[in-house]
Amino acid sequence: MFAHTFHETLLRVEGLRVEVGGTSVLSGVDAEIKDVVRPDVIQGQVVSVLGPSGVGKSTLIRVLAGLQPPTEGRVLLTERQCPVRAGMVGVVHQSCPLFEHQTVLENLLMASRDIVKARQLLARFGLREREDAWPAELSGGERQRVAILQQLMCGHTYLLMDEPFSCLDPVNKGKVCELIADLTHLDTRTTIIVVTHDIREAIKIADTLWLLGREPGRDGSRIVATYNLIERDLAWSPGIEHTPAFAALARELENRFATL
Amino acid sequence: MRSLVLGFHPNGCVSRAARIGFGAATLVLGLLLWQVAPPALPRPLELAHALRVLWCEQHLFDHLVTSFTLNLEAIGWSTLITLTLAYASVLPAVRPLVGAFAKLRFTGLVGWAFVLTLLARDGHQLKLWMLMFGMVPFFLTAMTAVVAAIPHERFDHARTLGLSERRVVWEVVVRGTAGEALETLRQNAAMGWMMIAMVEGIVRSEGGLGALMVDANKHLQFGALFALVGVVLAIGIAQDLALRWLRRVLCPAADLRR
Fold first, then answer.
1. Domain definitions of chain B by residue range
2. A21-55 tens-digit pLDDT
3. Distance of alpha carbon A81 from its chain centroid, rounded?
4. What's the pLDDT score for residue B189?
């Protein structure tokens, strides 16, 4: 296991309940993300939120991003524990919306007027040649990277990613994993929450895993289990997916999925 | 040959040459049908003769300018009113008003023409209002549908960048749908040319193509009448192409999305 320590709380979810049209979508959601610190490594946090389809993952994203107020409970951010509001958390939606009437560079400048930073980010993530392209001219992977960079331009240290692996082939899934790993090395406070139903990729990228699901006899979904992947020696190691521990956890999660 | 066969398959993909071939065949078929059509429909030579007479003796150019400027004015005002109302439909309090305006498309000009006559300052204004009355409800219906169809993810995306709600509306609704707005305008601008004969026939003070058409119809000059229909068709197609060009210049990314 890599040496690490947990420091202050960066995100806290307290007693979250969300009703839509009189039906509880989320109920009793409590969670916490702490700043994990590794010696001599700039290491951010990656939490995978796993859950079957229709369990309320998109609703959870909107609430965590401050785009939808919860019916009850609250979401607190930073070590000062400020209530979340729209604009504090970056969101990369599944369809990666961009401003279609603006070029890639203009899209980044919408978030911040810092053209030097925009060009640096484009160069770092292999998009320097595409700065004058229209969003409609980008491939799916390029579009996803631009959507992420746009959020980074805002200075967001919190980033929510909605189903970043959907409809991707294994090679591109690997690239997204690498991209997420790169992002976590930008700043120790970078906190990425990846919402997905792809079990293997969820384990590969994360240091913590939340299992979101609905239990029999309960209204709404909640986080039914939290897995610390650092303690299981499943975090921060390339090629981890070939280990027996990885396969065992994937099987365990698949079995739990069936009951949610 | 295979490409020609594919032209008769649902969703068949044909070569450019085959596309040109199908277009030419349609044109030839149209001309043939024209030749064998009932005698009431003037033949091409009659139309050419009538057009020459209209141009040389009845000041067709002046009438054309009158109708064109009137239509242009109506398009301009209709666009302004429509876009203002359509963009204002993001305000819940204004939505019923916008809906009510759009519903006016179910009422004809009968009745309203009398009210507009009483309210208008002169003939030009009356024609303008009647054209706008015909165009705005249809244009507005299409534009409010464009605004309503914006996925909420686009609003969320703009909000996560920390944009104010006004800026969100400006970027997502106004600038974000500019391409669709111009496309909707292109499709609805044809309405003006459809109504021009009726409007200029009712108010004849300034002349115009509609007044000439009503005269030709009254005196059973079908050659002149269909020559004028042809002029309106040509102007309409030219206007359509001009608006398409404008859309490409102002919203170069819009065609890529399509």
1. 1-36, 48-250
2. 888 999 999 999 999 998 888 999 999 999 888 88
3. 19
4. 87
Distance from CA of B180 to the nearest CA of A (A): 11
Q: Minimal CA–CA distance to A161: which of A60, A77, A93?
A: A93
Phi, psi of A156 (to 5 degrees): -65, 130
What pLDDT score was predicted for residue A104? 96
Q: Which residue has the tokens 């202050």?
A: A8
B178 CB neighbours in chain A (<8 A) are: 101
Contact B176 A95 (CB under 8 A): no
Say if CB A168 and CB A142 are below 8 A apart.
Answer: no
| Cross-chain CB nearest to A101 (options B156, B160, B176) | B176
Residue in B162, B163, B256 closest to A134 by CB: B256
- How much of chain B, in percent, has pLDDT values that exceed 90? 63
Contact B161 A111 (CB under 8 A): yes
Q: Is there a contact between A100 and B161 if contact means CB atoms under 8 Å apart?
A: no
Q: Where are the beta strands (DSSP E) in chain A?
A: 5-20, 23-37, 45-50, 72-77, 82-83, 90-92, 158-162, 191-196, 208-213, 222-228
Give me the sign of the Cα torsion angle B101, B103, B105, B110.
negative
Q: How far is A132 from chain B (nearest CA, A)?
A: 12
Contacts of B251 in chain A (CB under 8 A): 101
Whether A38 and A3 have beta carbons less than 8 Å apart is answered as yes
Q: Which CATH number fits domain B48-250: 1.10.3720.10, 1.20.120.610, 1.20.120.80, 1.10.10.10?
A: 1.10.3720.10
Inter-chain CB proximity B253 and A135 less than 8 Å:
yes
- Residue-wise pLDDT for A126-153, tens only, equals 899 999 999 999 998 899 899 989 998 9
Q: Please report which confidence band the pLDDT of residue B257 belongs to, taking 50, 70 and 90 as the band edges.
A: low
ipTM of this complex prediction, to 2 decimal places: 0.86
Mean pLDDT of B224-245: 93
Would you say A8 and A34 are in contact if contact means Cβ atoms under 8 Å apart?
A: yes
Residues in B lying within 8 Å of A, measured between beta carbons? 151, 153-154, 156-163, 171-172, 175-176, 178-179, 251-254, 256-257
pTM: predicted TM-score of the whole model, two decimal places: 0.84
Residues contacting residue A182 through CB under 8 Å, at least 6 positions apart? A125
Q: Which two tokens stand for residue A201?
A: 């990729």
